[in-house]
Amino acid sequence: MAGTSSSIVAGLTAVAVGTVGFLAYQASANVPPGLGGRPSASASPPVAASKAPRDRKDPAALPAGSGRGERVVYSVDDDRVWLVGASGRVQHTFAVTPGTVDPKPGSYAVTSRSKAITGTDGALVEHVVRFTSVGGVVVGFSAAVKDSPSVPDASVKTGGIRETRRDGEAMWKFATIGVRVVVIR
C-alpha cells in the first residue's frame, strides 16, 4: 500500500510541476512589450562569437568557438542546431526555421520543457525545449505536429525555433533541464 501512495504522490507532483511550468510559460509569453518580463536565463558567461571563418562547404560541421562538453549549439545566422555529446562529438545536426525573435549569442541552460502545447502562432507543437526569453518573448525549440515548419508571420513576436518532428524528438531526448544551449552568430 505504501508503494501505491508514493506512486500517486509522485504522479500528482509531476502533474503539478508541469502545470505550473505551462502557466508560467503562458504568462511570460503574454507580457505586453515595455512591461518587463523574465530576465534572460544565463547559465554562464557569454560565449565569444568565433572569429574563425566557418566551413561553408560543410554546413553540418560544428563551428569553432562554440564551447566544450555536452551542449546544444544554435547558430542564428545559419539556422542550424548541433547536439554535441560530452566527448565533443556531434551526435545530430539539423536545419531549423527560427521565429521572429532571436536570442543573443551566449550560454544558456534549458529551463523548462513541455511535451505538447499550442505555440504563440496557434500551431500545435511538441517537444518544446525552452532556454531563455527576450523582451518577454519565450525562446525555445519545438516541432510542429503537422511537421511543416512555416515562415513565421513577421508582425507577431515568436520565439519558437521550429524543427521537424524527427529532429524535435532528438532534441527532446538530448536537451533535458539544465543542459547548456550555446547561441552563436
Would you spell out the secondary-structure blueprint of this structure?
Elements: H1 2-29, E1 71-75, E2 80-84, E3 90-95, E4 106-109, E5 112-118, E6 124-134, E7 137-144, E8 160-163, H2 165-174, E9 180-184
Parallel strand pairs: 1-9, 7-8
Antiparallel strand pairs: 1-2, 2-3, 4-9, 5-6, 6-7
What does this structure look like?
The protein is α+β, with helices and mostly antiparallel strands and 185 residues long. It has one domain (2-184): L,D-transpeptidase catalytic domain-like (Beta Barrel), CATH 2.40.440.10. Helices cover 21% and strands 30% of the residues. The protein has two helices and nine strands. The strands form two sheets. The chain has a five-stranded mixed β-sheet with strand order 3-2-1-9-4, with helices on one face. A four-stranded mixed β-sheet has the order 5-6-7-8. A hairpin with a 2-residue loop joins strand 6 and strand 7. Mean pLDDT is 78; it is low at 5-53.
Provide a short characterization of the protein structure:
This protein has one domain: L,D-transpeptidase catalytic domain-like, CATH 2.40.440. It is built from two helices and nine strands. It has helices at about 1-30, 165-175, and strands spanning about 70-75, 80-85, 90-95, 105-110, 110-120, 125-135, 135-145, 160-165, 180-185.
Shape: globular
Mean pLDDT: 78
Summarize the biggest pleated sheet: 5 strands, mixed
Look up the CATH topology: L,D-transpeptidase catalytic domain-like
Count of the domains: 1
Are there runs of 5+ residues with pLDDT below 50, and where? Answer: 5-53
Number of helices: 2
CATH class value: Mainly Beta
Strand order of the largest sheet: 3-2-1-9-4
Radius of gyration: 17 Å
Write the CATH architecture name: Beta Barrel
User: What percent strand?
Assistant: 25-35%
Say how many strands there are: 9
CATH superfamily: L,D-transpeptidase catalytic domain-like
Order of helices and strands: HEEEEEEEEHE
**Between the first and last Cα atoms, what is the distance in angstroms?**
55 Å
Kindly state the percentage of residues in helix.
10-25%
Q: What structural class do you assign from the helix and strand content?
A: alpha+beta
